[in-house]
Amino acid sequence: MTVPRPKTDYTRPPKSILRQVGRAIADFDMIREGDRVLLGLSGGKDSLTLLHVLLHLQAHAPIRFGLGVVTVDPEVEGFDPSRLKPYVADRGVPYLFEEHPIMDLAREHMTKDSYCAWCARMKRGTIYSAMRREGYNVLALGQHLDDLAESFLMSAFHGGQLRTMKAHYLNDAGDLRIIRPLVYVRERQTADFARAAELPIIKDNCPACFTMPTQRAHMKGLLAAEERANKTLFRSLLTAMRPLLTEGGIPP
């Protein structure tokens, strides 16, 4: 079925970001003709940047695809997504707002996991259910190259494994595809665009995780320190991680 091109309002991201996302989509076969893509919108700079990237691609790319947005409210004190609802509505994008008492469930059922790991799994399950209910087949997530590098080091340092986030893969049930179109984009690029476009960022979009230092924050500091002495650090890390981005193969 042909998906019509929408008439929508968005801010055009810089050419550098569009070029890197376009290359990632081509390299990893992320978006295909007729896909219905659902963007996981946390309210952070990265997912909001990806919203504008996808809106631009939807209007100009040679392939046609549908686009919706989903936010999961974990019902954590301090999380206020109220700014997102009118913003997404003004862009003309279908918006799913899913409320789930993740913090309360964690207190009752969580055992050895960190809260962050528990929350991530619960959010993902909520999103998958929404996708099946609403007929979306692709979930777009906003992790960028810095996130991948941090995950790579955390896995090596603490897990004794060479792993990172995949660029494109199937969920365990095999019925939904998950993509990360920002895998070539640096965090500073999304931060610059977010400031320039005055995106409605929810800075503490996960208050429970901002209350204490994390392994990821430590890795971010290590990478920043190393990059000051090695300007090609992330280029080298991307080369090292590339086989891991498609581990298991690109979904058919």
Relevant terms:
alpha/beta; 6-stranded mixed beta sheet
Architecture overview:
This protein has helices at residues 15-27, 45-60, 84-91, 102-109, 115-134, 145-159, 187-197, 215-229, 233-245; strands at 36-40, 66-73, 95-99, 138-140, 168-170, 177-179. The chain is of the alpha/beta class and 252 residues long. The protein has one domain (15-245): 3-Layer(aba) Sandwich (Rossmann fold). Strands 3-2-1-4-6-5 form a six-stranded mixed sheet. Helix 2 (45-60) links the parallel strand 1 (36-40) and strand 2. The longest helix has 20 residues, at 115-134. The two termini are 19 Å apart. The mean pLDDT is 89.
Major sheet: arrangement of strands: 3-2-1-4-6-5
Strand content: 5-15%
Fraction in helix = 40-55%
Structural class: alpha/beta
List the quaternary state of the chains.
single chain
Q: What is the level 1 CATH name?
A: Alpha Beta
Largest sheet: 6 strands, mixed
Q: Kindly report the name of the CATH homologous superfamily.
A: HUPs
The overall pLDDT average reads 89
The CATH architecture comes to 3-Layer(aba) Sandwich
Structural domains: how many: 1
Shape: globular
Order of helices and strands: HEHEHEHHEHEEHHH
Question: What is the C-alpha radius of gyration, as a whole number of Å?
Answer: 18 Å
Could you tell me how far the N terminus lies from the C terminus, measured between alpha carbons in angstroms? 19 Å
